[in-house]
Design brief:
This is TonB-dependent receptor. Keywords: Cell outer membrane, Membrane, Receptor, Signal, TonB box, Transmembrane, Transmembrane beta strand, Transport. Belongs to the TonB-dependent receptor family. There is one protein chain. The protein is mostly beta strands. Among the domains are: 129 residues, TonB-dependent receptor, plug domain (Ferric Hydroxamate Uptake Protein, Chain A, domain 1); 324 residues, no CATH class. The protein is 5% helix and 52% strand. The protein contains four helices and 51 strands. A hairpin with a 5-residue loop joins strand 41 and strand 42.
């Protein structure tokens, strides 16, 4: 146990240890949560699935919610996260550019706070954190999802939110031969293209049912077109009075330098608090998401006492997103005629000379994951059983010689820069900022005139990650008629490696920056009209939102744009008008190709080794004639961490010859950096259940759990990016000595199982969390470098995660499931209400502001009919507004990391199926029937950050099984 643990933790541990001693001393009858039986896949349909879920919940020692397949090859939803959100206390997070549920929040804890396992094993993920992107986990042929809201020490205690255990079917689940096949087509209304999903499963047992093999494979494709309006960051700072609307100052030179000549004029002094938009724009994204899932499982039972299982799970997901958009960049000191609301939000302004950029991108990500495992179960005696499990998993992002991102940026500026205005007229949940002036030199009719558009920057990059996990666990169970004892241990090694290669590192991205001669610049070249595709109209861009946009987006292929520039030749051997010869970091080095270079600051190599041991006891007794179940356990976890990276420091900042808003960075020589750290924690757990009557149960649960820091935050390197913006200098730093979050958890529940397939429950919970990891920011100089635009030491906004305060989260979950006799009708409804003693304070302008993220009230309702082979289900999911995270796309605020809030959302989905025969079923699904959007905002509700319109999706298909 670490010294940082609060005194209350020691008291809780002592109490649980005493209960363990008592448990061992009291004779009782052992009974643990019953696993799903072979019959679970025989009783099919919605009602059969709900009854199995209810039975597992009722019999479990701790607080567990379950979703079971309705039949082999038939999970309730096409996405695992979408199914999980039907459970009490579970909400989903959506990937904005696709609209797909990619993560879950449990009782207010999202992402890394929830551990996802496959058959009890940790999943490797190369996406950068510990959380799993659920769009990479196919729901086809999933057998069961279990959400453990209180820990099972024999499984894991490494999640403050919940542990999600995904169980796949195995051949011995149902001896004999089983075949399931499905084929479907889906279409998103904005994409307008029907795309396939096809899968098959084969399972059989042989050799007198002592051997079995199961094989399944699924191909899934989803095409999605999304419209987006964005503000990349609302930056807090201070305006000078001369910048405000109504100012009569003869000149305006905003300054915070008390030694400057401008400071002598009071109207130049920056002392008016406010927030402004760093960048504003809109884009359209077309995403093609292709996934292949494959699995093979072999089982051998040479005797009644021994069972061997070998399995291999493979997935490959390729996501390609084509983007067309526009964007404008703003600097606080350049804003004039600034109008603010009562909160200090800038709701109207003008910035002279604003360039206009038309952007195009192709973002590609390939994620491959493979996990192979061996499991051996041995019943040594009638009382003593052992289980050994070993697995190896590796996940790779963008393996091989792939390019992850191709981006183009063209437009006009300089002489054609615009006195551009942006006005905020409403709330972020139903309006977006609108441009009051735009176009070259203010001429709106020439907004997208191809004759004046020239080249600007060109970005190519690839993010290469890998995550490799080796794990082994050995456990035993001893039981007789009195009680059960579980004991065992686990070793896990997790190695995460990351590097980024891009055209920032060699500054080649600025080879043809500047917009060219139409803008009065001597760098940049005209763009031939042959590169443009059909323009994209911006009319009726976001359904249900007000706010005007320019008439259209220019569409072009970013790689074709890059190839055109490369086709101009080698500027070292041929004079190319428009090439950025004047920039010393580009001119002498670029030879005609946009080659990638390694960004040393991105290199990370994190190795984490964890040893754990556990023991738990379980017994049943009677209190005043009422059955009483007691389960207590304790788990010790020891973690050793080695963190390596490549460090370097800035030694100079220079202005860009092609773009006055950019600053180039010169660095010192790179050098390797490595650190080591370790920590250990003792994690007790206690579950008690009293059956007041056969149908009315009371539960009490207490536990200590932890959540480890995300692996990609543990780098020992301070990273200063190559391309810096004037007035927005930033740096990021990791912290390899971060301690895990630590939580003391308490649950009290009452459950009433008043008839078959029906129950009502209320669950009160409290989580007392310490060691919160916060993304603190501070403004500081680095290595004494000077900002050439001010002549003063450069001030960077440095973001770094540190262990910070503690907080208490409390809430209540309400659940009601009811089936109306044999009518076929029923519903499942739940609601969760949460609160904390550390809510967000919008008036706090300190650098170290803190609040608990992820907390939101939520409610779900599923109504269904299931009878005579016909099923129909309507699901309504609601989540209130919540604080998602600290930090925005641009983190340059003088007041620390600005918040990101997600607005209230409601989604309605519909699914149906009909059994033509016992073997053949047709089915359909309609998602987001009300065409809801996803939107976020900053510190105040009118500070829109993102709004995505991701449309409706329709699916129809056929399923065959025997």
């Amino acid at each position: 146990m670490t010294k940082a643990e609060p005194a209350r933790g020691r008291a809780a541990l002592a109490a649980t240890a005493s209960l363990l001693v008592l448990a061992i001393a009291v004779p009782a009858t052992a009974q643990d949560a019953a696993p799903a039986s072979d019959a679970d896949i025989i009783v099919t349909g919605i009602r059969g699935s709900l009854q199995r879920n209810l039975d597992i919940k009722r019999d479990s020692s701790g607080v567990v919610d379950v979703i079971s397949a309705e039949d082999i090859g038939k999970f309730p939803d096409s996405n695992v996260a979408a199914s999980l959100q039907r459970l009490p206390g579970v909400s989903i997070n959506r990937a904005g550019s696709r609209g797909e549920p990619d993560g879950i929040t449990v009782r207010g804890f999202a992402g890394d706070f929830n551990e996802t396992l496959i058959d009890g094993r940790r999943i490797s993920t190369a996406t950068g954190g510990r959380s799993v992107d659920f769009t990479t986990v196919g729901s086809d042929f999933v057998g069961q999802l279990a959400v453990l809201k209180t820990p099972d020490v024999s499984l894991s205690s490494s999640s403050i939110g919940a542990t999600v255990n995904i169980s796949y079917p195995k051949p011995f689940d149902h001896p004999g031969t089983r075949v399931a096949m499905s084929a479907a087509g889906s279409v998103q209304d904005d994409a307008g293209k029907i795309v396939p999903t096809i899968g098959g499963l084969f399972s059989t047992t042989f050799a007198d049912d002592t051997m079995g093999i199961l094989v399944d494979a699924v191909y899934t494709r989803r095409d999605t077109q999304v419209n987006r309006v964005y503000v990349s960051g609302w930056q807090g700072g201070r305006f000078a009075p001369c910048q405000l609307a109504g100012s009569t100052a003869a000149s305006c030179s905003p300054t915070s330098d008390t030694e400057s000549a401008a400071w002598a004029t009071p109207t130049n002094r920056q002392n008016v608090v406010g927030w402004y938009q760093q960048q504003y724009g809109a884009d359209q994204r077309y995403t093609k998401d292709e996934r292949i899932d494959g699995r093979i499982a072999f089982q051998w039972q040479p005797s009644d006492d021994v069972l061997l299982t070998i399995d291999d799970n493979y997935s490959r997901q390729k996501i390609v997103t084509d983007i067309s958009g526009f964007g404008m960049w703003f600097n606080q000191g350049d804003l004039r005629n600034v109008e603010q609301d009562e909160n200090g939000t800038t709701i109207n302004f003008i910035q002279a000379g604003t360039p206009t950029d038309f952007t195009a991108g192709r973002d590609s990500r390939l994620l491959e994951t493979n996990q192979v495992g061996v499991n051996l179960k041995w019943d040594a005696t009638d009382n003593l059983k052992f289980e050994a499990d070993a697995s190896y998993a590796k996940s790779r992002q963008n393996p091989g010689n792939r390019i992850g991102s191709e981006n183009g940026d063209i437009g006009y500026g300089g002489l054609l820069g615009t006195a551009l205005g942006v006005r905020v007229t409403g709330d972020s949940k139903n309006s977006f900022p609108e441009l009051t002036t735009y176009g070259p030199a203010g001429d709106q009719s020439r907004w997208s005139d191809p004759t004046i558009i020239g080249s600007h920057v060109t970005v190519r990059s690839v993010q290469k990650n890998s995550d490799e996990i080796k794990q082994f666990r050995l456990g035993g169970t001893w039981e007789d008629d009195s009680f059960r004892v579980k004991f065992g241990g686990r070793y896990m090694e997790d190695r995460f490696r990351l590097e980024n290669r891009n055209t920032f590192a060699n500054n080649f991205w600025q080879a043809y920056a500047g917009y060219g001669t139409p803008s009065g610049r001597n760098t940049g070249v005209p763009i031939p009209t042959s590169l443009y595709g059909r323009p994209i109209s911006l009319n009726n861009w976001i359904p249900g939102f007000s706010g005007n946009l320019p008439p259209e987006l220019l569409a072009y292929d970013p790689r074709a744009y890059q190839e055109y520039l490369e086709g101009l030749g080698n500027p070292q051997t041929t004079n190319i008008p428009g090439f950025n010869y004047a920039d010393p970091t580009v001119g002498p080095n670029f030879t005609g190709a946009f080659d990638l270079a390694l960004d040393p600051g991105s290199v990370q190599d994190i190795r984490e080794r964890t040893w754990s041991a556990y023991v738990s006891v379980n017994f049943e007794h009677e209190i005043a004639g009422m059955p009483f179940r007691f389960n207590a356990g304790v788990r010790e976890e020891i973690t050793n961490l080695t963190s390596s990276g490549v460090g370097r420091l800035p030694i100079a900042l220079t202005g860009s010859a092609a773009d006055p808003t950019l600053l180039n960075v010169t660095f010192s020589e790179s050098q390797p950096i490595s650190t080591k750290s370790s920590y250990s924690y003792l994690l007790p757990s206690l579950d008690m259940k009293l059956e007041v009557t056969n149908n009315f149960h009371l539960r009490f649960d207490a536990s200590r759990t932890l959540t480890r820091p995300s692996l990609n935050t543990l780098t020992p390197v301070l990273n200063v990016g190559v391309g810096q913006r004037v007035g927005a200098l930033t740096a990021t730093g990791g912290n390899p000595r971060l301690q895990p979050f630590l939580a003391d958890n308490f649950d009290f529940a009452a459950e009433w199982y008043y008839q078959r397939n029906s129950y009502a429950a209320v669950n009160f919970f409290i989580k007392d969390v310490s060691n919160f990891i916060v993304a603190g920011t501070q403004r500081q100089t680095i290595n004494g470098v000077v900002d050439p635009t001010t002549g003063q030491p450069a001030v960077f906004t440095v973001s770094q995660r540190v262990n910070g305060p503690s907080a208490t989260i409390k809430g209540v979950e309400l659940a009601w499931q009811h089936v109306f006799g044999d009518s076929g009708f029923g519903f499942n409804a739940n609601a969760t209400f949460v609160d904390t003693n550390k809510p967000y304070d919008r008036t706090d302008l300190s650098q170290s502001g803190f609040a608990v993220t992820g907390l939101a009230n939520s409610a779900n309702f599923v109504g269904f009919y299931d009878k005579n082979g016909f099923q129909i289900r309507a699901a309504v999911n609601w989540r209130d507004k919540y604080l998602q995270a600290f930090g925005q796309a641009q983190n340059n605020s003088a007041f620390g990391a600005e918040p990101t809030f997600v607005n209230e959302a409601l989604q309605v989905d519909l699914s149906t199926s009909f059994d033509i025969t016992k073997q053949l079923t047709i089915f359909g699904e309609a998602l987001n029937l009300t065409n809801e959007t996803v939107s976020t905002h900053g510190r105040f509700s009118n500070q829109l950050l993102d709004v995505y319109a991701y449309g409706r999706r329709y699916t129809a298909g056929v399923r065959y099984r025997f």
